[in-house]
Automatic annotation (TrEMBL):
PANTHER family from the UniProt entry: DISCOIDIN, CUB, EGF, LAMININ , AND ZINC METALLOPROTEASE DOMAIN CONTAINING, METALLOENDOPEPTIDASE
Database matches in InterPro entries: Astacin-like_dom, MetalloPept_cat_dom_sf, Peptidase_M12A, Peptidase_Metallo
Name of the protein: Astacin (Peptidase family M12A)
SUPFAM superfamilies referenced in this protein's UniProt entry, alphabetically: Metalloproteases ('zincins'), catalytic domain
Superkingdom of the source species: Bacteria
Lineage, uppermost ranks: Bacteria, Pseudomonadati, Pseudomonadota, Alphaproteobacteria, Hyphomicrobiales
Keywords from the UniProt entry: Hydrolase, Metal-binding, Metalloprotease, Protease, Zinc
GO molecular function terms attached to this record: metalloendopeptidase activity; zinc ion binding
Length: 263
């Protein structure tokens, strides 16, 4: 079912340290899928080897600091960058099936926001839409080629969500104020998948107010062991986790994010 395509799980949960823009170093739990580190079901942290190498550097740097040696910043790729001129160059893997999912998702972003997708010519930084397991994307612009992965079950709606990550949005329920708005039922979560709810993996900038209608919000049964609710709104009978289109709040969040967009 399409709603579950973002919530793929690996067999072994590992810890890495990553540097998150504005929030310093954080431990992140991830699973390995197709050789890449994936957190919160659909956040692509990069090739596992690179993530582990960066993590080792951070650990060694910390050890050196404790030992009193002078240390220098390690060149860690930050997780969040904005796209210059709100423009995202892209390519499509020729073997990606059902490409209209992607072109429809891009058309939706063009209709609702000022983000522009252009076919890549010679740009260094670009995103490639490709087939794979589940749906995933890294958060914000990385250096060089990055991916939006679309498994067979990923819909246009899922793709709109993944593009949200690509342009720099985190999951709505990873906001700092989320515990005021949602209740998490860890007892209903698949064993071993609790980390997808317990870590608040974002850079600490909450854009606008908490938005139940966000396409970036987990649905009620994300990572559920038996279909029962794992995350529920505190207020009212509001639906969460829609994958139809950007909400008014999402559109505003993107505007805010790119208001002071760096080049
Ligand atoms: Zn996601």
């Amino acid at each position: 079912m399409a709603d579950n395509a973002e919530f793929v799980s690996g067999t072994q949960v590992k810890t890495a340290f990553v540097k998150i823009h504005g929030a310093g170093v954080r431990p992140v739990l991830y699973v390995e899928i197709d050789g890449r580190a994936r957190a919160e079901g659909c956040l692509d942290l990069g090739p596992t080897q690179e993530v582990e190498a960066t993590s080792r550097q951070i650990r060694e740097n910390a050890a050196a600091t404790v030992a009193g040696f002078q240390t220098f910043g390690v060149g860690i790729k930050e997780l969040r960058f904005r796209w210059p001129d709100k423009t995202v160059p892209y390519t499509i893997a020729p073997n990606l099936p059902n490409q209209n999912r992607m072109t429809d998702a891009i058309a939706h972003w063009h209709e609702k926001t000022k983000i522009k997708f252009v076919q890549r010519t010679d740009q260094d930084d670009f995103v490639t839409f490709r087939p794979g397991s589940g749906c995933s994307s890294s958060v914000g612009r990385q250096e060089g080629q990055q991916f939006v992965t679309l498994g067979p079950d990923c819909t246009t709606g899922n793709c709109i969500h993944e593009i949200g990550h690509t342009v720099g949005l985190w999951h709505e329920q990873s906001r700092r104020d989320r515990d005021l708005f949602v209740r998490v039922h860890l007892e209903n979560v698949m064993p071993g998948m609790e980390h997808n709810f317990t870590q608040h993996l974002n850079d600490g900038i909450d854009l606008g107010t908490y938005d139940y209608a966000s396409i970036m919000h987990y649905p009620k049964n994300a990572f559920s062991k038996d279909g029962s609710a794992t995350i529920e709104p505190v207020f009212g009978q509001t639906e969460i986790g829609q994958r139809l289109g950007l909400s008014a709040g999402d559109i505003k969040a993107v505007e805010e994010l790119y208001k002071a967009a760096a080049t």
